[in-house]
Amino acid sequence: MGFVFSLATTCAFSQNTSNNTLLWKISGNNLVRPSYLFGTIHMLCADDIQLSDSLKAAIKKADKVYLELDMDNIFEMLSVMGKMKMRNDTTLADLLTAQQYDSVKTYFKKQNTMLPFSVVETYKPMLAASLLMQGSMDCTNEVAMEQLIMKEAKAQGKGVKGLETMAFQISIFDSIPYGIQAKQLLSLVEQTDSDSSDSAEDEFREMSEAYRAQNLDTLEAITKRDDMGIANFTDLLLYKRNANWAQKLPGLMKDQALVIAVGAGHLPGDRGVINLLRKAGYKVEPIRNDMSKKPPQKQL
Questions:
Q1: CA–CA dist 184, 190 (Å, integer)
Q2: Cβ contacts of residue 231 below 8 Å, gap of 6+?
Q3: Which terminal residue of the chain, N or C, has fewer Cβ atoms less than 10 Å from its own Cβ?
Q4: Residues with Cβ within 8 Å of residue 116, at least 6 apart in sequence
Q5: How far is it, in rounded angstroms, from Cα 192 to Cα 282?
Q6: pTM of full prediction above 0.90
């Protein structure tokens, strides 16, 4: 289900940047030691990417690592399973025409997703869409950047915390009409099941390449193509959460060095985390972040 949060956290960008990097140093404003901000994506092929030496060095220097979620909290994961379902016993059959419903059902059964369609059709449609997005990848060794960061943090003996709870993130999707979510899921099925050049696989591949290139301008162009109404909820999915984090982070960074790793879409823009921290008086500057599997780069 992890990729659904990619839908939420890379849904919009609003500022161009000439700094092609996902790693940013936070200093000043009476910080005892600098912290670091990093932009993640929730699913990539493991052979395509690795943590940069700069990010590893930042984790080594940090006291704690903060992700959007504490992904190691199995008890929290189990506690929200029931909240993945739509309210009032709603199913996809209530949101789509009979023909549309059959199309989605047939496609899911062909994909052999982790869960049976009888379960998936009760989930919030954006969660169901995440299962399809994971299945559209060109590899069988998918990995989330968060997983790589957690592994490195544990190897360095650093604690991992979450800025939000999973229950909160899942609750966001109750504020987006299920009908809009269902139409987005249907569109994803139709695109993925076609041979057109604008298929979901092609768009996901393009987004992955832009992420590996750390090109926020290209990511912005891709995510602005949304025409299913989800862009109308950018404030809910992105900006309000950015503001909450910008209020929370000063207290967390005051006496300890952190690595803060959140979806790349939260970083740029007037209402992005970078600019909000700058407005709060911090110096936020780009750091070289070579993620390609080549000879090591110079560390921080």
A1: 10
A2: 11, 12, 224
A3: C
A4: none
A5: 43
A6: no
Residues 163 and 67: beta-carbon distance below 8 Å: yes
d(CA 33, CA 186): 48
Alpha-carbon gap, residue 17 to 22, rounded angstroms: 11
Please identify which residue in the block is written with the tokens 């740029």: 268
Q: What is the rounded distance in angstroms from the CA atom of residue 151 to the CA atom of residue 182? A: 35
**Per-residue pLDDT tens over the stretch 77-130:** 777 778 899 999 999 999 999 999 999 999 888 876 778 899 999 999 998 888
C-beta of residue 259 within 8 angstroms of C-beta of residue 228: no
Q: What is the 3-state secondary structure (H, E, C) of the chain?
A: CCCHHHHHHCCCCCCCCCCCCCEEEEECCCCCCCEEEEEECCCEEHHHCCCCHHHHHHHHHCCEEEECCCCCCHHHHHHCHHHHECHHHCCHHHCCCHHHHHHHHHHHHHHCCCCCHHHHCCECHHHHHHHHHHHCCCCCCEECHHHHHHHHHHHCCCEEEECCCHHHHHHHCCCCCHHHHHHHHHHHHHHHCCCCCCCHHHHHHHHHHHHHCCCHHHHHHHHCCCCCCHHHHHHHHHHHHHHHHHHHHHHHHCCCCEEEEEEHHHCCCCCCHHHHHHHCCCEEEEECCCCCCCCCCCCC
Which amino acid does the sequence have at 136?
S
Per residue in 190-232, pLDDT (tens digit) is: 877 665 545 566 777 787 888 888 987 776 666 656 555 566 7
Integer CA distances (angstroms), 206 to 40, 184, 219, 270, 291, in order: 16, 19, 9, 25, 17
What tokens were used for 167?
A: 């229950």
How far does the chain reach from its first CA to its final CA, in angstroms?
34
